[in-house]
User: Which sequence fits this backbone?
């Protein structure tokens, strides 16, 4: 009889432990799924909402800006895209606009029609970049209504981790140029790198070597030809009409902390045009 009582007590104890474990498991599952929050009228944490609403990562490491729709303002153009880096999709917005301000080249109160880019990542303003200027409207000395605000350029993703913004630069006369700005952890890193000088052109045998269509990016490095003014000034042209410039092929990489540029090749018999080397 004594043994039977002990056996019953042991069985009851086991059942109690199992019930406690079962209730604990049910409670954890309800907490994890947000059942209690729903009953109490609470919203799920942002992290949980994002995790439940995952979307496929955007594929690609370069995104051409001329291919995007331009949302036009009175003197502005805004373009939006989605790009993946650091294993997450990010919403990127780029606004290009004119701004009338005092000329930095003159201290007499002369006004200048400046051009700026604003870069937003996930709705946060990351950077504002001066990209050149235009002549003021000659009649009203105000915004230039003749200038097409629709812009070109690229968003690059370096090594799947870091962002590069190849932006259009403009000066009053001549073709646009392009410069590269690099970012890590949503902050600008290093100086702006000139890739193609605005108003300048060069090439050989009738073919251009500069311009955005001659810039190559493979997801890790950027390669492009650049007019070397330092070397060109040392070069004695064969004639005023013939080849008179030196171009260098450069390779640019970005590791999140610094931009590194190496010279891969050089061409001496290059014809320079536009503003050339001053």
Assistant:
């Amino acid at each position: 009889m004594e043994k039977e009582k002990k056996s019953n007590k042991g069985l009851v104890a086991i059942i109690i432990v199992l019930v406690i474990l079962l209730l604990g498991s049910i409670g954890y599952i309800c907490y994890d799924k947000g059942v209690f929050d729903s009953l109490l009228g609470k919203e799920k944490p942002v992290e949980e909402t994002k995790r439940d609403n995952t979307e496929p990562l955007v594929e690609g490491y370069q995104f051409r800006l001329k291919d995007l729709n331009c949302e036009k303002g009175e003197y502005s153009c805004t373009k939006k895209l989605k790009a993946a880096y650091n294993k997450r999709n990010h919403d990127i917005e780029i606004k290009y606009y004119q701004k009338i301000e005092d000329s930095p080249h003159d201290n007499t109160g002369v006004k200048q029609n400046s051009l700026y880019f604003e870069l937003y990542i996930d709705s946060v303003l990351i950077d504002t970049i001066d990209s050149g200027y235009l002549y003021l409207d000659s009649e009203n000395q105000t915004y230039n209504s003749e200038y097409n605000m629709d812009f070109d350029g690229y968003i690059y993703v370096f090594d799947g981790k870091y962002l590069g913004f190849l932006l259009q630069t403009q000066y009053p006369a001549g073709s646009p140029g392009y410069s590269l700005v690099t970012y890590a952890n949503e902050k600008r890193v290093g100086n702006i790198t000139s890739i193609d000088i605005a108003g300048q052109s060069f090439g050989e045998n009738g073919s251009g070597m500069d311009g955005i269509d001659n810039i190559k990016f493979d997801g890790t490095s950027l390669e492009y030809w650049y007019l070397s003014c330092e070397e060109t000034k040392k070069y004695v042209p064969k004639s005023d009409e013939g080849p008179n410039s030196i171009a260098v092929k450069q390779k640019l990489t970005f590791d999140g902390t610094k931009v590194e540029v190496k010279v891969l090749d050089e061409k001496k018999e290059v014809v320079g045009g536009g503003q050339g080397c001053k």
Observations:
- The helical segments are 2-32, 35-39, 46-52, 229-232.
